[in-house]
Design brief:
heterodimer; A: 111 residues; mainly beta; 5-stranded antiparallel beta sheet; 11 strands; B: 115 residues; 7-stranded mixed beta sheet; 4-stranded antiparallel beta sheet
């Protein structure tokens, strides 16, 4: 059974600081996603990581994937209040047909 | 492109009634659609996978007689919660993908409250 674990689950940080969210998964997969969810809303796709060593960046967010370590990171640079949200990683399995989600990281950025 | 809609966005019903939620892919044909449930402050849990024209595949622990899924066309899947009870209150999110293994595009979700 594929398990996906994120940490931390809660993160409160000040604007301007850097931080990293970690996503570990238990079995082989070649596709990992990062999503953002605002309160009461559905998921917004942030990144798709398809191969070992993949790195993608969009604004203040950067995601990377290490398939050998079964680890992905979402790095936040110089955080701003607008990035406050819950962030999920999701790992594809069974021929990439299904997704298993991590528990989510609730990020609060204080002015 | 790749827009998925859900209807209704919110529904409140009495215990014992049935509720139907629609999921539509607006600008692409979705071979596969997925239904997820999310309880407050929790993660998304896959309920079932549906392929157009065939029976849905339910995840372990999901009652297929309670959560009826129909994927009648390449742009529409429906989830019917039968004889709803308060414990069925949740946020239901669908997603759609063009082909097996392709990226899933998520709908805006439907918040179900059962009184």
């Amino acid at each position: 059974e594929l398990k996906v674990e994120q940490n931390p689950l809660f993160l409160s940080m000040q604007e301007g600081k850097n931080y990293t969210i970690y996503c570990n998964y238990s079995t082989t997969s070649d596709r990992l996603y990062w999503y953002r969810q605002d309160p009461g809303k559905s998921l917004e796709s942030l990144f798709v990581l398809l191969s070992n060593g993949a790195v993608k960046q969009e604004g203040r967010l950067m995601a990377s994937l290490d398939t050998k370590a079964r680890l992905s990171t979402l790095h936040i640079t110089a955080a701003v209040h607008d990035l406050s949200a819950t962030y999920f990683c999701a790992v594809a399995y069974q021929g990439a047909q299904k997704l298993v989600f991590g528990q989510g990281t609730r990020l609060t950025i204080n002015p | 492109g790749a827009v998925v809609s859900q209807h209704p966005s919110r529904v409140i019903c009495k215990s014992g009634t049935s509720v139907k939620i629609e999921c539509r892919s607006l600008d692409f044909q979705a071979t596969t659609m997925f239904w997820y449930r999310q309880f407050p402050k929790q993660s998304l849990m896959l309920m079932a996978t549906s392929n157009e024209g065939s029976k849905a595949t339910y995840e372990q622990g999901v009652e297929k007689d309670k959560f009826l899924i129909n994927h009648a066309s390449l742009t529409l899947s429906t989830l019917t919660v039968t004889s709803a009870h308060p414990e069925d209150s949740s946020f239901y999110i669908c997603s759609a993908s063009r082909n097996l293994g392709n990226e899933q595009f998520f709908g805006p979700g439907t918040r179900l409250t059962v009184l």
